[in-house]
Design a protein that fits this description.
Number of domains: 1
Order of helices and strands: HHHHEHEEEHEEHEHEEEEEE
Oligomer: single chain
Number of helices: 8
Structural class: alpha/beta
Helix content: 25-40%
Radius of gyration: 20 Å
Strand content: 25-35%
Largest sheet: 8 strands, mixed
């Protein structure tokens, strides 16, 4: 089951339970620990180039921290789904975000542990030009001695046909046919932490020679945040932007009803299943039917970037048309644009 096949609130809730259950099972396996270990090893060259290798600390301890956090947050974290219409708003806020020297409080996040699903992924371009989709985010409140921090993980959908990272996994699977069976529906691709009650350090970026970069192109019409322009680690910026925006008046957080079979499955697996869908606030109340479409109306105007739209002709042959950049939303509504976006106000 995937969010790519669901369009209703009930479908969102059902997909969230299915994916949380499968990820909880996966994170409890030895294969998950080995994947985290390989992921931590992949971080060391970039950290060394940025002069921050000591921040990674003991790799075994970091593997243990990530593993414990994942095993806790996937089954017990509160699930949220970001409606596709909100993706551009959150992505734009995350791209402009600079948390340098800011102080976060214990209540910065809506809960101590959460899982954010993005049916429309936000793409992250690393300094070496590689692209990875962020289709899910997890955050966990943790402590180390007297320090407290939010551990934030970015996850790519393993089977996303448009995600270059998923395509790389499929190429690895050609050499190891058992690989896909040993992975969960999401794979860890990004890691960051945000300290609590301590100034957030400036992001240090290693120098990368332009000839060494092999830029990967993103899927048509998707939002891409690049490390070379970001002022805050990408997955942390997306998480914080979501935390702030879901509490702002422009957003509404709607409980997604879960069918009986889904409730029973969640109960058997001890999965927290009170899924909430974060949407643009409606202009008027809408009675949500259990099997109806997930409908919402805009109360703000926002800029939509130019993108390609995939269509099919009468013979079923695919083709594309270019949609020019335009402003979406009702006439006379407040315009969210550039530095005038107020969603990050403190």
């Amino acid at each position: 089951m995937s969010f790519r096949t669901e369009t209703t609130l009930v479908g969102y809730a059902r997909a969230a339970v299915d994916l949380k259950t499968r990820m909880a099972d996966y994170c409890a396996t030895v294969d998950a620990v080995e994947y985290v270990r390989a992921f931590v090893d992949s971080l060391r060259p970039a950290a060394a180039a940025a002069g921050g290798e000591e921040q990674l600390g003991d790799p075994d301890r970091l593997v243990d921290v990530i593993t414990r956090a994942s095993r806790a947050v996937w089954p017990h974290g509160e699930p949220f789904v970001l409606a596709p219409a909100m993706t551009a708003v959150v992505a734009a806020a995350a791209q402009a975000l600079d948390l340098t020297n800011d102080l976060l409080t214990d209540d910065a996040a809506p809960c101590d542990g959460g899982v954010l699903f993005l049916p429309e992924p936000i793409y992250h371009r690393s300094l070496d030009g590689r692209l990875s989709g962020i289709a899910a985010l997890t955050w966990t409140a943790m402590s180390s001695g007297s320090s407290r921090f939010w551990l934030i993980c970015g996850w790519a959908e393993r089977d996303d046909p448009d995600d270059p990272h998923a395509q790389r996994i499929r190429s690895y699977a050609q050499q190891d046919p058992t690989l896909m069976a040993r992975l969960g529906p999401y794979v860890l691709t990004d890691l960051a932490y945000l300290p609590v009650a301590e100034p957030i350090a400036a992001l240090i970026k290693p120098q990368v020679d332009e000839p060494d970069r092999d830029w990967e192109t993103g899927p048509d019409g998707r939002y891409v945040i690049a490390d070379d322009t970001a002022q805050t680690p990408v997955c942390a910026a997306i998480a914080y932007a979501f935390w702030r925006i879901q509490a702002q008046p422009l957003a509404t957080v709607a409980p997604a009803p879960l069918d009986r079979a889904g409730r029973r499955r969640a109960a058997r697996a001890s999965i927290v299943h009170n899924t909430r869908v974060v949407m643009l606030r409606r202009t008027s109340p809408i009675n949500e039917r259990g099997d109806g479409e997930a409908k919402w109306h805009y109360r703000v105007r926002f800029l939509v970037k130019g993108h390609w739209r995939r269509l099919h002709d009468k013979d079923g042959q695919p083709y594309r048309i270019w949609i020019h950049a335009h402003i979406k939303g009702p006439d006379g509504a407040p315009l969210l644009h550039g530095e005038k976006v107020a969603v990050l106000a403190r």
